[in-house]
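Collaborator request, handled under Task 6.
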Amino acid sequence: ADYEALPGWTVPARHIRIRRALRLTVVDDGETSTILSNAETVGDALFASGIKLYLTDEVSPPLDSPVSDSLMISIKRAIPVELMLDGVVIEARANAALVADVLVELNAPLFALDYVQPPGDTAVSEGMRIEIVRVTEEVLTLSEVIPHENRVQPDAELNLDQRAVLQEGSDGRREIRSRVRYENGVEVSRDLIESVVAEAPVNRIVAYGTRVVPLGTINTPAGPRQYWRRLCMYTTSYNPISNGGNLRTSTGATLDKGVIASKPNIIAYHTRVFVPNYGNGAILDTGGGPSGTDYWVDLGYGDDDGFKSWRAYSWVYHLMPPPEKIVYRLPGWTPNSNWPGNCG
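Structure tokens returned to the collaborator:
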């Protein structure tokens, strides 16, 4: 019976049972105190005394044990830790000494390739954050294009400046198998397993002609002449004065009318040419002006040749016979960037 409630009873009590409080010693994480309790079990005694317990605290003897006078109750407190799992931070308390045991205590198992940080054999400390890293792997197969090459080759049976596609090109395909590792859903590594050419590329092959044949006949001051190539070129002129008084050319010839300068990658030295309204000449100097275009010739004049300033596009006829050295493959034709136009 509750002693304080006795005066309120309407019927006088006929039997009164008195349970004497027992003296209990509580060692709470090394701190010793004494409590008086008439509870029947250890758990009830601690609860009645206001001693708060957490689920993972260890109590000895167990909470359902009966109390007895002078009983010593030992409490080993779980320490607060943080468990980071699948992007969520869980505040918990653990009594385990090692990180691996904390996972068991909190029912947070590792699967397959998973691992924990800090490692499982690390001693647990108050406030420690323990992270479970979920690890998965997969094998990916990716296709990669193998670009085909564009190749050219000479063909003595094909006329100069003509092209013929000998073989069309097509890209190939490479299969790449890789092992990809993910940690918490984020890719952290990719290791090559194998790379196999599933389909080899086929190179495009274009033949360019090297057979020089007359293309036609042009009337020149020296009479009708056959020509084997005709180029539309930006045309300028120069003389010893505009050349700084220098009469010598890059081939050693003296600057005079009939000496024509060009870029050797377009017209080889000693190529005989005819330019309408200028006359016959030969490529005996290097020139061609700035980099607006490669297709540029500079028409030479001597001191007494009646210099004429040229700024126009002109047909340049390559006369037979061809020189020993021929530029078989010409770059693409572009007009001079400062003087757009063409030969009409």
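The cover message to the collaborator said: "The chain has a mean pLDDT of 91. Residues 128 and 215 are 90 Å apart (CA to CA). Please let us know whether this matches your experimental observations."
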